[in-house]
Design a protein that fits this description.
homodimer, about 150 residues, mainly alpha, Multidrug-efflux Transporter Regulator, Chain: A, Domain 2, 5 helices, 2 strands, elongated, DNA-binding
Chain lengths: ~150, ~150
DNA sequence: CTACGATCTCAAGTTAACTTTAGATCAAGA
DNA sequence: TCTTGATCTAAAGTTAACTTGAGATCGTAG
């Protein structure tokens, strides 16, 4: 696979694990803009495959296609962004990621804590059920999912 | 708000930020099983609110409702699980979370790297576009999204 | 040149996750 | 009791993200 590879939609599908129909749909949604062969068939550059990979990952974390399109659209293409542009533009996305990582890590750690505390049940656990007085007879960690107060 | 609070669906909606219709839908999907007042109105315990919070978070990370139902159903209720049961049951979920955290953290860090490298464009960046020889004239970090090879 | 699988477009169908609507009942204050 | 807002059920509608289907064209091995 060389740097100047240009791929057909079927090859891109095989490589990314996406369905051919999904790739065409993403084009309709403006996520990618593949080139066209003289006959009309789509031709994909590496950049397109990168974008598609990005789409898959972002999607797996609950980002919508319009939101992903925004993220991808804010990047290069029209005018060349300055370093400052880049920083400003990506800051929002980075913050969203940081936020999600924080929430998820918290959830994961809480789960670890619950497994470790030996209480045997999420429902009965002081950790899961902070304010249940019966459960608070035991001790151990006391937190879950930040404090959105439920 | 005391530990024995029992809430109406509207109060739960206000507290969780979910729509009333969504809460009813979640009940239909088996995610929660609120009690009923003599007249038929739903009555929610703290445990229900906890479950709903869990649903929101898991959903934000792309888990489907059936999958979330599995996670919630595997927990207490029928028979009392042993510590070992608990560990085995939650192991799968924990691994999914770890996996997601790893992927997302990588993505975030890659983005950091790209912002920091001064190349000004994701498309042109050696980081984003690893195998593009033109871009590799510059130096800096070289990676993105693990190596799923696109 | 001829197959024949890969693609193309456009339109309609599908699925998950809800929301909306309609008409009836509940619940709590005046 | 009366009234008024909150809930109830059941069914139909909505939206996002695709998939499927129909019929035509592309493109490459023979």
């Amino acid at each position: 696979m060389r740097a100047d590879d240009i791929l057909s939609i079927g090859q891109v599908a095989a490589r990314t694990g996406l369905a051919v129909s999904a790739i065409r749909y993403y084009e309709d949604m403006g996520l990618i803009t593949p080139m066209r062969a003289p006959g009309g068939n789509r031709r994909f550059r590496r950049a397109d495959i990168r974008r598609l990979s990005f789409v898959r990952i972002a999607q797996g974390f609950g980002f919508t296609l319009p939101r992903i399109a925004e993220l991808l659209a804010d990047l290069p293409e029209a005018r060349t962004p300055t370093a400052k542009d880049w920083r400003v533009i990506s800051e929002g996305f980075k913050q969203e990621l940081d936020q999600k990582i924080a929430t998820l890590t918290k959830l994961r750690d809480d789960l670890d804590g619950c497994i470790g505390c030996g209480c045997l049940s999420l429902e009965r656990c002081a950790l899961y059920n902070r304010d249940d007085r019966a459960a608070q007879k035991g001790d151990g960690p006391r937190y879950l999912m930040g404090d959105t107060s439920d």
